[in-house]
Structures are given as structure tokens and as C-alpha cells.
């Protein structure tokens, strides 16, 4: 008989029920087992309530896995009704309800295997089932560069309209002050916040299970840690801040966030994992959206969608765009400054992607005004000489005035 538990009570019974064990259940609901695709052929099904009682009892059935073997003819000869899907009969999984046993050492599989071993012409390798781990999806060059614009870092902000942007830059530093992980909704990846932060009334009856708030799915119970790392990248023209999330960081270090969070436990908020250190110094292609939000809100932290370190893709990016005069050193055309504003000029300080930029403390001017470097020639002005000349000129002037007065008296 099929039994179902509502999402709100799932956490309560998940800790109580164990697959293969036997239980005595009380205070539950009974209903018709309807629908187009019932999981079992029983006429009725039961539903668990919040007050449903579950008590463990001694096993009374050896078929704890619930297998009911049927000949293949029962599937191929089945007569379909008009309400069923018409097509070639096949066996497939049921959503969130199927479990596969591959080469497990259980009586049902051993009996099935023995039956084949006794057949004429039996070859073991022909019936073995192998488990393959899903391969990581490799992004092709066509997918990476499709409808995107190649840019140097300093020229990202030149456009007044949003566009897909690709830059080739080196991760210069990680902004550790912004942390490295956040609690996310497992369905959409949005931030999972405590209901108190959303202004929930304290008089509201507290739920027995922990509930968080998601902007998209509202109240949720299924949450987990995910990466959120802000890095500073540089090329020969300037620097920019990029946001790297779960899929990007996992691709770079091959460690999912939940493993690092479990490793550091309660200290995760107070430390920055050493496992993230290798990303500093990586030279990659970054693809992101320069969005209308960035333009209208003067926000220049760009969320990266794809990264690549593939040499052929980097070569494609550089072709006809970046000049490589010296081996190992990238020289990118520098956009000339169109303003004499001091703040603007500081934003466009050129960087060498191979070296760490040095802080420029002063700017030398040939005219001698402003600050100057220690090696330049300095003109020494004698203030005392100027004062003496002023005093001498005043005495001479006074003497001339006295001479004029004496002539008038005569």
C-alpha cells in the first residue's frame, strides 16, 4: 500500500522511518489511490498527519524491499486504455520514488544471476552492469563566444547598453572581508534568510521544523551552503571585481562547498579556507553579463557565468585583439584618457598581468609644481634673500620720500 507524507511533516518522520524496518502506524488518513499513474495497484492509500504515531516492531515479512517480479510478457502484452499514453511499452523511473540496485549482494539479485549462470552460452561479462559517473560537461568554443564581445578590463564600462562580455585576466586577490559562502535555497540558489529578517511576527506560532525564507519559493526547509567569492582580476589595462559562485569555484578547485563547510563547522564564518588559495594567480577567460543593473546603479561587481583555461580558446580570444610581442607577457592596447580628472586617471592605471602592481605614491611633473620624485632637480628659493631685498627697497623708497620733503621745505 502506498503511503505519503506532506512536505511540512517530512523532517519529523524522516528521522524515525528506516527503509526495510517494520512499524505500527496509527492516526493516519485513508483515501482512494487515484490518478493516472498510481505507484501501486492497491485501491487505497494512506496519508500521514502531524499527529500520526509510528512505533517500531519486530520484522514479520522477509520481503523487506517490496520486490514483486513479473515476466516481461506482462509488460509487452499489456492492453492500454484511452487514458494511458500510447506508444512502445517501456520501464522507467518514477519521480522521487525509484531506487536502483546494481550488482548488490541481495537474495533477489543473486537468484536472478544464478538463473542466468545455468543457461547455455552464459558469458558473465555480457550481463554485468557497470556504474558510470556522469562526465563533466565541457563547454565548446562556439558556446563560450556566442553573442559575446571581447573586452579589455578598462573598457568594460565604455558601453551604455548591456551586453555579454568576455575578458582575459588574472585573479590578483580575493576579497576575504566579504566571506566565501552563504546559505542558499537548494531549488534555485537564492539566499535563504531567517524569517525574523523578513519582519515575521513573534506572536506567530513557531513551527517544529526550521523554516527559512527564499525570495522565489517563500518558506523553505531544504537549504545548504554555497560558494560566493569576490575576486579582483587584472590585465594590462586595469582591474575589476568579479563574483564567483558555486559552479565556478567548484570547477576551479574541484571541492564542493558543503564539504568545506562540514570540515570547518562553526568556524567557517571566522576563517578563509586554504583550499581556496590556489585560485589566486590563475589566468582565465571570464564571461559575464554587463547588465542594465550595473549601468543604472553604478554597481561594478560582475557575476561570472563561465570560465575557461583552455589554450585554444584563449588563442581564439587573443587573435586580432591582443598583441603578444614578448613571450609570456601580454600587452593590451591602452585606451587613452579623455579627461584630466585625477580620480579618473587613477582608475586607468595600467597593470602588467604577469606582475603585482605597485602603489604609485606621487606623480612627477616637469613644471616643478606639485610633488616631485627624489631624483629630480629641485630649485631652492632663498626666502631670506627675498626679505632682505624687500627691506632694502623699502629703505631706499623712504630715503627718496625724505629727500622730496626737504626740497619742499626749502
Automatic annotation (TrEMBL):
<dbReference type="GO" id="GO:0004386">
    <property type="term" value="F:helicase activity"/>
</dbReference>
<dbReference type="Pfam" id="PF02721">
    <property type="entry name" value="DUF223"/>
</dbReference>
<protein>
    <submittedName>
        <fullName>PIF1 DNA helicase/replication protein A1-like protein</fullName>
    </submittedName>
</protein>
<feature type="domain" description="Replication protein A 70 kDa DNA-binding subunit B/D first OB fold">
    <location>
        <begin position="1"/>
        <end position="55"/>
    </location>
</feature>
<keyword id="KW-0067">ATP-binding</keyword>
<dbReference type="InterPro" id="IPR012340">
    <property type="entry name" value="NA-bd_OB-fold"/>
</dbReference>
<dbReference type="InterPro" id="IPR003871">
    <property type="entry name" value="RFA1B/D_OB_1st"/>
</dbReference>
<keyword id="KW-0547">Nucleotide-binding</keyword>
<keyword id="KW-0347">Helicase</keyword>
<feature type="region of interest" description="Disordered">
    <location>
        <begin position="362"/>
        <end position="410"/>
    </location>
</feature>
<keyword id="KW-0378">Hydrolase</keyword>
<feature type="compositionally biased region" description="Basic and acidic residues">
    <location>
        <begin position="376"/>
        <end position="400"/>
    </location>
</feature>
<dbReference type="InterPro" id="IPR047192">
    <property type="entry name" value="Euk_RPA1_DBD_C"/>
</dbReference>
Amino acid at each position: 500500500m502506498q503511503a505519503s507524507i506532506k512536505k511540512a511533516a517530512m523532517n519529523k518522520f524522516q528521522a524515525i522511518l528506516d527503509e526495510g524496518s517494520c512499524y505500527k502506524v496509527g492516526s493516519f488518513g485513508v483515501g482512494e489511490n487515484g490518478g493516472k499513474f498510481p505507484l501501486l495497484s492497491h485501491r487505497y492509500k494512506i496519508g500521514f498527519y502531524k499527529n500520526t504515531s509510528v512505533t517500531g516492531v519486530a520484522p514479520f515479512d522477509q520481503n523487506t524491499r517490496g520486490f514483486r517480479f513479473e515476466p516481461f510478457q506482462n509488460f509487452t502484452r499489456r492492453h492500454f486504455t484511452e487514458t494511458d499514453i500510447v506508444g512502445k511499452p517501456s520501464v522507467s523511473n518514477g519521480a522521487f520514488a525509484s531506487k536502483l540496485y546494481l550488482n548488490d549482494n541481495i537474495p533477489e539479485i543473486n537468484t536472478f544471476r544464478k538463473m542466468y549462470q545455468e543457461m547455455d552460452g552464459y558469458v558473465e561479462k555480457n550481463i554485468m552492469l557497470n556504474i558510470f559517473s556522469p562526465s563533466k560537461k565541457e563547454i565548446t568554443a562556439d558556446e563560450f563566444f556566442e553573442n559575446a564581445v571581447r573586452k579589455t578590463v578598462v573598457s568594460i564600462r565604455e558601453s551604455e547598453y548591456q551586453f555579454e562580455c568576455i575578458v582575459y585576466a588574472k585573479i590578483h586577490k580575493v576579497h576575504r572581508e566579504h566571506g566565501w559562502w552563504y546559505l542558499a535555497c537548494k531549488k534555485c540558489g537564492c539566499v535563504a534568510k531567517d524569517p525574523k529578517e523578513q519582519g515575521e511576527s513573534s506572536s506567530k506560532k513557531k513551527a517544529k521544523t526550521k523554516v527559512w525564507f527564499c525570495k522565489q519559493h517563500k518558506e523553505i526547509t531544504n537549504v545548504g551552503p554555497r560558494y560566493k567569492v569576490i575576486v579582483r582580476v587584472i590585465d594590462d589595462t586595469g582591474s575589476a571585481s568579479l563574483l564567483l559562485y558555486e559552479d565556478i569555484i567548484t570547477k576551479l578547485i574541484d571541492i564542493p562547498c558543503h564539504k568545506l563547510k562540514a570540515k570547518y563547522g562553526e568556524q567557517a564564518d571566522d576563517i578563509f579556507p586554504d583550499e581556496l588559495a590556489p585560485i589566486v594567480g590563475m589566468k582565465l577567460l571570464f564571461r559575464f553579463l554587463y547588465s542594465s543593473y550595473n549601468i543604472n546603479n553604478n554597481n561594478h561587481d560582475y557575476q561570472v557565468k563561465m570560465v575557461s583555461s583552455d589554450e585554444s580558446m584563449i588563442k581564439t580570444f587573443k587573435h586580432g585583439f591582443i598583441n603578444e610581442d614578448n613571450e609570456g607577457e601580454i600587452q593590451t592596447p591602452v585606451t587613452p584618457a579623455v579627461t584630466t580628472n585625477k580620480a579618473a586617471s587613477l582608475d586607468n592605471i595600467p597593470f602588467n598581468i604577469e606582475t603585482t602592481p605597485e602603489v604609485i605614491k606621487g606623480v612627477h611633473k616637469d613644471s616643478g609644481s606639485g610633488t616631485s620624485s627624489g631624483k629630480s632637480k629641485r630649485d631652492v628659493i632663498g626666502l631670506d634673500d627675498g626679505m632682505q631685498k624687500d627691506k632694502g627697497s623699502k629703505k631706499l623708497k623712504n630715503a627718496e620720500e625724505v629727500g622730496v620733503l626737504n626740497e619742499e621745505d626749502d
